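Exercise 7. Predict the joint structure of the components listed below.
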Amino acid sequence: MDDPRAARLVETALRCYPARWRHRHGEEAAELAALLIRDGTPAGSVARSYLAGAAREWLTPRPGRRLTAVACALLVAACSLGVSAGLLASAGPARAASTSQPRGHAQCWAGPPWPVPVVTRPTSRPQAIIWEAGHGRPC
Amino acid sequence: MNGRNDGAGQDVLRRVGEASVLILISLADGPKHGYALIQDIKELAGVELGPGTLYGALDRLERLGLIDPLPAEDRRHPYRITAPGAAALRVHLDSLERVSAAGRLRLRLGGI
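Solution:
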């Protein structure tokens, strides 16, 4: 892959797969991604497909896999999705160049699509945690 | 052969998804690796399989004994359709043909 950002995005998505899968398909999957991107498929679309595939892979019941492992994998996949969304947002030159976005779109992909905790420290009250809605809605 | 296709007659492909069926159709004329499968399916059916979908379907078909991986060429793993895979594909395509014929007949009867 010529574009290091695209390579990083796909690499991140491939890291979400179980080790067994990566051992078996990892190298070929990276090469396939490079070929598809070379043919004009957007890197984000390839990475999204791999992320969805990784989630399916973890959710497919296998003998010996524990529920906690599945939960951890889902958490990692969700975090990676947030990172990927962030990378995609920073990759858009139009977005980066624009300084006068409409008010409703000002926070597109500015954060993960799930609520994030914000810690406030008022002087006279005990510490409070407020869950704010995520900003990762599509434009 | 636990969990594998037990033979002809039963449409085991009914629940495996469109991607798996398209992969079997693509492999019906010879072994292919991932990139060749994606290109062939795009030409054959106008469907662009995502790479994540492709590997999920390949793993599922292999678990069912419908395809076999061949020795790797460089980093690419070609797959070939097995005899139970070919039989299952034939049963599934026959079933689709029957449904298609019934649908066309009903459209004619309904005058649509």
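Discussion. Chain A is about 55% helix and 5% strand.
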